[in-house]
Amino acid sequence: MNARVLDGEIITSKLDDVRAYDGVRTRRILACMIDYLIIGLLTIPFAILVAVLGLLTFGLGWMLFSVLVPAVAVLYIWNTLGSADQATTGMKLMGIRLDRLDGTRIDGLTAVVHSVLFWAGNVMLTPLVLLVTLFSDRKRTLHDLLLGTVVSRTDR
Question: Where are the transmembrane segments (predicted)?
Fold first, then answer.
C-alpha cells in the first residue's frame, strides 16, 4: 500500500483522501441528468428500427417498445460504467468515477446492478436516495453501501 503525507495527514490511497469527495453529490446529480439525455437520444435510432421491424412483422415487432428504453440504458451502462474508465459519459463530463472499496475494477455486471439499484431506489425511496449521502461516509448512496462502491472525483 502506498502511503503519502498530504498537509500533515497520512493518505494511504486516493479513496482515503477526503478531498476526493468534495462536490460529488452535485456532480452525481448533473451526471445523471446528462446520462438520461444521452440515453434518450440513443433510444431514437433504436425506436426507428423497432418501428420498421413492427411493419415487417405485421405489428409483432412493436412489442419491443415495452423494453426499448431499459434495454438501451442497460447497454449504455454496461459499455460506459463497466469500461476501463469506470464512468458514464455524464460522469466523465462531471469529473467523477465509480470505484470499488477493495480496489478492483468495476465490471459490466456490477455497473448494471449498481444502476438498477439506483433506479429501483428512485422509484421506491426517491428522497431517501440522496438523504443517505448526508449521513454516510464518503457521501455514499444506499446502493453504493450495498455494493461496496464509492464515487470519487477524478481530478483529486
Answer: 28-53, 60-78, 116-135
